[in-house]
Amino acid sequence: MGDMFRSEQMALCQLYIQPEAAYASIAELGERGCVQFRDLNEEVSSFQRKYVTEVRRCDDMERRLRYVEAEMKKDEIDLPLLSAEDEPAAPNPREAVDLEAQLEKTENELREMAANGASLKANFTHMEELKCVLENTEGFFSDQEIINLDSNRLVDPNDPTQQPGGQRGQLAFVAGVIKLERFFSFERMLWRISRGNIFLRRCDIEGLCDDEETGRPVLKTVFVAFFQGEQLKQRVKKVCAGYHASVYPCPSAHAERADMIRDVNVRLEDLKLVLNQSADHRCRVLTSAAKHLPRWSIMVRKMKAIYHILNYFNPDVTGKCLIGEGWVPAQDLTTVQEALARGSKQSESSIPAFMNVIDTNEQPPTYTRTNKFTNGFQNLVDSYGMASYREVNPALYACITFPFLFAVMFGDLGHGIILVLFAAFLIIKEKKLAAIREEIFNIFFGGRYIIFLMGLFSIYTGFIYNDVFSKSMNIFGSGWNMNYTEAVMTDPNLKYITLRPNDTFFKTYPLGMDPIWQLADNKIIFLNTFKMKLSIIFGVLHMVFGVSMSVVNFIHYKKYASIFLEFLPQVLFLLLLFGYMVFMMFFKWLVYNDTVEGALSPACAPSILILFINMILQGKQETPEPCKEFMFDGQKSIQMVFVVIAIICIPWMLLGKPLYIMMKRRGSPPPLPKPQESAAGADHAGGHGEDEPMGEIFIHQAIHTIEYVLSTVSHTASYLRLWALSLAHAQLSEVLWNMVLAKGFIFDSYVGAIGVYLVFGAWSALTVGILVLIEGLSAFLHTLRLHWVEFMSKFYEGAGYAFEPFAFKTILVDEED
C-alpha cells in the first residue's frame, strides 16, 4: 500500500558504459524496463548521430519483414502465435548479421518468384486470349460474303488502286482482345479514322478474365477489323495500342488456324504445369518463413529500439566511453546495476559499466507501481491528469469510494449479481482473454476488477434498499404492526389506512428497508427523502476527506504555512455550513419521533432546507403552536456564529497566503538562480515560484478562492445525482417488471407457460441492455465525474508527467496496436 499512497521516489542516474558493452547492457535494461533515458543529443540531427547506420539497417530489415508478411497475407498463410515465454531476446551483433542475410535471401527469393510468376501469368493469359481469338474468329473467315466483300464493288477508272493489277478484292484484317466496356468507344474511333471503310466483328468471351493492369476479373471480347490498305492498317494498330487492346496473329486459312490452336493448347498445358510447380515452391518458402517471422520481427524491433536508445548517449572526450542519463525508481537501482554488470559480462568488456546517482532540481517523472487489480483504478486517475511528483495518489482511496458511489446509484441486488458474474468470467478466463485485441472488449477487460467491485457493492446497497429487480425480500418479516380491527379493515368506504411508527414490533429493521414499503402509497416520497439526505451526507463526507488530504501534501512538501492559510479556512467554511446541515439531518432523525407529543412530534419536525436557507439569509419562519422554529435552544445564536466565521474564512483564503509570501520576501535576500530547475519543478502542490510577481500571486489566489467558495455550493448540489440516478434506476426496473414480465402471468394453462418463456426472454434482454449496460454506463460516468471534479479538485494538482521506461514489452505491445 505504501507504493499506492504516493508515487515512488525517483533518482536521476548517470551511466558509464564501454562502447563494446553498450549494446548488451541496453538490451538487459530493456528486458527489465526500469530506466527512462534522457536524450543528451537533442541539438544533433537524427541523421548525424553515431548509430544512424545501424538504425537504417533495422529499418531495411523491417521493410523486408513487411514485404514477406504482405506476401503471406496475399497467399492467406496464417502466422503462428508466439507466447510471451517464447519471445526471443535481442540478437547479438553476430546474430544480427545472420538475420539480415536470411531476410535478404528470403526477400530476393520471393521477389524473383513474384517476377517469374507474373511473367508466366502474363504468358498464360496471352495464350488463353490467343486461343479465344483463334476459336471465336472461325465463323468470321468461313463466311464467303465477308471474304469477297470487296470484289463486287464498281471499278473507278480514275482510281489507280482499283485498276487491273491493283489490290482488288483483297482485305487485310487485325484480330485481338479488348475489354468489353471499351469496345463501343473503340468501334466509334475506328469508324471515324477510316471514314466508314472498316468492317468490325466481335464475339464475347464467356466468363470473366483477369485484367493485366489491376488483376481484377473483367469482361472481354474478341474483335476482328477488316480493312483495305497498308496505311489504314497502321492507324488501326495505333488505335488498338491506345485502347490497350491486345493484338494477336490469326491466319485466315482454316488449316493454319487448326494447327495453331493445337500448338497453343500444348503451350497452355506446359504453362499450367510450370505455374503449379511455382505456386508449390512459393508456398513452401512462405510456410518456412512463417515459422520464423514472429521471432524475426521481435528481434528486429528490439534491435532497433536498442540503437535508438544508444543515440541518446554521449561519447566522452576520449571516445572510449558512452555516457547516458535516465530516471530510475529508487527501488530499482540495484536491478539496474545488476543489468549493467550482466551486459558487461556478456560482451566480455575489460572495464565494467557503472552508475552514479546525481543531484538535480528538475521535477522527476511520476511512477506508481500497480498490479492487475489496482491498474484499472490508477488509469481512471491518470485520465484526469498525471500526478505531480510524490503527490498523494487518489487511486488508493478510489478502490473503495468509486465502486461504493457507483453502487449508491446502481443499488439493486439482482443487477449487482449480473455484474459480478460478468466480471468473474473475465477474471477467471483472463489469461485466454488477454490475447484478444478488439478495442471495445479491451475496455471492459481492463476494468474487470472495477466491474467486480462495483457488482459487490451493488449487491450490498441492494440489500440496504431491499431491491431485487424492483421487488423486496421479506427476510426478517415486517416490523410494522397492523393495529386495526377487522371492521375497520373491511369498511368499503375506507381507501387508505395509516400505520404509525410507534406501533411496531421493533424500532429498527435489522438490515435495510422494511419490505412493507413496497406496498405503501408514499413509497416514492419516503425513498426520495431518504436517498436525497443520504446523497448529501455522502457528498459532504467525501469533500471533507478530499480537503483533508491536502494536509498530507502540505506536510510532504514542507508547506506548513499552507495548512493554516489554505486548509484551515477551507475546512471551516465547508464544515460550518454544509457539515452543520448534515448534523441537523442526524439530529432531526434522532430527536423527532412518534413516541413523544408536542414540539418534538413528527408533525413539528422542521424542514432542513428551510432552516439552512434562513441560516444563510438570516430569515425567519412562522410556526404553529406547539411547534418551534428551531430544533434546540440556542440554535439561532450558533447558526449566526457559524455564518460569521464562514464569511471570515473568505478573506482569510483570499489574502492570507499572498500576504505571507509578501512578508517572507521582504525578510529574506533574493534567491540564487538555479539553472537546472525546470518550470514544473519550481511549483510543487500548487505553490508559487519565488520569482513570480506579487500581482499574479494575488490574482491566482483570488481565482482559487472564488472557485472554492462557489464550488463548495455547486459540488454539494452535484452529489444529488446519487439520489436522482438511484431513483431513476429503481423506477425503470419497476416499469420493466410491471410492463413486461408481469404481462406473462396473465395467461392460463399451457399458453401461460409459453407466454412466460417468451416474455421472460424479452424482459431479460431489456434488463441487461437498458438497466445493466446503459444505466450502468451512466452511473459509471457520473461516479467518474464525482471523483474528478468534486473530490480530486480539493487536493489533487495533476501537473506531473508519466514515467515511461525503456521496456521491450511496452514497445512490442504499442507496435502491435
TrEMBL record:
It comes from Drosophila madeirensis (Fruit fly). Keywords: Coiled coil, Hydrogen ion transport, Ion transport, Membrane, Transmembrane, Transmembrane helix, Transport. Its main location: membrane. It is a multi-pass membrane protein. It is found in: Membrane. Essential component of the vacuolar proton pump (V-ATPase), a multimeric enzyme that catalyzes the translocation of protons across the membranes. Required for assembly and activity of the V-ATPase. The chain crosses the membrane at residues 404-428, 440-465, 536-555, 567-587, 599-617, 638-655, 750-774. This is V-type proton ATPase subunit a. InterPro entries: V-ATPase_116kDa_su (IPR002490), V-type_ATPase_116kDa_su_euka (IPR026028). One of its GO terms (molecular function) is ATPase binding. Belongs to the V-ATPase 116 kDa subunit family. GO terms for biological process: vacuolar acidification. It comes from the Eukaryota. GO terms for cellular component: plasma membrane; vacuolar proton-transporting V-type ATPase, V0 domain. Residues 58-123 form a coiled coil.
